[in-house]
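Q: Give me a protein?
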Amino acid sequence: MADFDQFPTTGDDPELHFYQEAAQKDDRYPVAAFCYVAKCLKRLLAEVEGKGNHPHVTGEAICLALKKSLLKDFGTLALGVLEQWNLHETNDFGNIIYDLIDVKLLSTSPKDSRSDFVDVYLFKDAFTPRHQGPTTKAPWAPLWPPQD
């Protein structure tokens, strides 16, 4: 598998020190995970603001936006990337968001809670390619078991 531990960010990224500080405080996740989640959240907030809405989103909306972004950015490798970043459930997204709140990169409202991120979806279901049914045929014959 490719090494996705260094998610693209530059040394002159003005928020890099926030990602690094959060990763130091919560060493379960690499800097790349903090960077990716923060950048996806910024994209989501810009979309919400662009529609004339107040730029606040729920934990569920963040999890769904991350799912969409991960599938778009990494496709069938998304689950492997998440595993490499030690992200195993949507609760991990909440941990990262709240770690970024703790380092003052993000803010929260009184109605927000870490529990908003619990069990939004199962990673296995969200990021595992699905079989398309019996009519889908591979363009090659399987190598094993041997065909008669």
Observations:
- Confidence is low (pLDDT under 50) at residues 1-6.
- Residues 99 and 122 are 22 Å apart (CA to CA).
